[in-house]
Amino acid sequence: MSNGFLSQEEIDSLLNGGGLSPEPPQEEILSDIEKDLLGEIGNISMGSASTALSQIINQQVNITTPVVSVTTLKTLKDSFQVPNIALEVKYISGISGENLLVMKIADAAIIANLMMGGDGKVDSHELSEIEESAVSEAMNQMIGSAATSMATMFAREVNISPPNSKIWNDSTTQLTDKIDENEDIIQVSFRLNIGDLVDSTIMQILPVITAKKIVSIMMGTETQQVEQPKPIEQKIEPQVRQSYEISEPVQAQNYSEPAQARYTEQPQQPPVEVNKASFQPLRESGSASMPRNIDLILDVPLEVSVVLGRTKKSIKDILNLGTGSLIELDKLAEEPVEILVNGKIVAYGEVIVVDENFGVRLTSIVSNAERVKSLSQ
């Protein structure tokens, strides 16, 4: 500075931020295209998971609107509502990495109640041991269906390990020892609707390396290390019918003196006689000479059972059974009972009493067509 004015160099320095070059922007962990692709994969795979859950609880289930974001387990613990139940599974083939499915305890309690034959109207924020086991099985079925859907999309086999469930009570709970709390993770949140009982969210947590692997498979940019085949050493033994024995070494620099060689001819092999094959003429054999081996299995024991009727009950109804309870069967009193041999129907009959013991009088034998049909069931 001179005479209270700034020089041109000082002005340029201030305009350039004091001469310091600006820091380069940090590279994004996932691009917008990768986030959209992960969201679409999650939408399709969770669609299969919702179908599996719907069949288990006999309710309409919708899992839609995936939202993909990058976060850490520590940030997630500090911001997410608790308590939750988390199911940890590991991809063991097709994809490598961990996978966490997190659900709120209130939603899990409704699912457990529906699985046990209830109406789903509960206000519990805790899960008993049997309810936690039931919800873990339901979430395992969801993850399995999602893996099957991903296998179809990836055109490869995708298998998962046995699940490990854990209750997420507070921020001190360690969900998994495979992912560090400060490590970047991919969170895919879904909206969960179960009839008019649940309108909530569930989320899927993936390590960045697993998410990148899924994206590379779908985009066809997956890199695999292909092991180079080792060269096969072949020992070549030429078939020589004539041999030469060199009596003197050949001097490369002098070609005027040819080397002396002794020729030896191998003896020829004797000719092999080849004759035309002759066969005995075929003769018809009578079927009367075939032995009947049914006698060999006449003393094999078989299990004979009689079915009076059948019915279906929910787990809730079974648990409510007690002494004196009545179970209505699907047959009328005058209908014939089924006689089964090793679990297959062979005849029908009626119940009688013989010397104060129950017995069954055969009234009809099933036809061969019905027997074959019962074998395929």
TrEMBL record:
Name any one Pfam family assigned in the record: FliMN_C
Under the heading CDD domains, the entry gives: FliY_FliN-Y (cd17907)
Q: Where does this protein have compositionally biased stretches of type Polar residues? A: 254-267
* Alphabetical UniProt keywords: Cell membrane, Cell projection, Chemotaxis, Cilium, Flagellar rotation, Flagellum, Membrane
Looking at the record, the residues that make up the CheC-like protein domain are 33-69, 130-166
InterPro entries from the entry?
A: CheC, CheC-like_sf, FliN, FliN-like_C, FliN/MopA/SpaO, FliN_T3SS_HrcQb, SpoA-like_sf
- Localization of this protein: Cell membrane
Residues annotated as domain Flagellar motor switch protein FliN-like C-terminal: 296-366
What's this protein's family per the entry? Belongs to the FliN/MopA/SpaO family.
Which PANTHER family does this one have?
A: FLAGELLAR MOTOR SWITCH PROTEIN FLIN, PTHR43484
What is this protein's record name? Flagellar motor switch phosphatase FliY
Q: Which organism is it from?
A: Clostridium rhizosphaerae
